[in-house]
Amino acid sequence: MELTRAIEALPDLERRHLLTSPEEVYQNILDPWNLDDAYARDAVFEYILHPSAELIALHDAHRARMTAKFKKQSER
User: What angle is formed at CA 2 by the lines to CA 8 and CA 5, rounded to 5 degrees?
Assistant: First the structure.
């Protein structure tokens, strides 16, 4: 409940930053630290009570990119 309130109090720009990993995370998704980052950003979406269409799109894009990079890098 506390986390939900804290996220709701953030400006929209900050919420957008919460939902997308830095570029280096996607480029080396198999690094354990990067996996933690990517999965945490995926999970934080569940704590946004009334996400805007833009936040939903960012979350979907992050999830798709995370999955694609994980699959591609796992095949090497």
Answer: 15
Query: CB of 42 within 8 A of CB of 4?
Result: no
State the amino acid at position 59 in one-letter form: H
Q: Over the chain (76 residues), what is each successive 10-residue block's mean pLDDT?
A: 93 94 97 97 95 96 97 92
- The dihedral through the CA atoms of 72, 58, 41, 21 has a sign that is positive
Residues 29, 61: Cα–Cα separation, whole Å: 15
Tokens of 51: 């996400």
CB 21 within 8 A of CB 37: yes
- Angle between helix 32-44 and 53-74 (nearest 10): 150
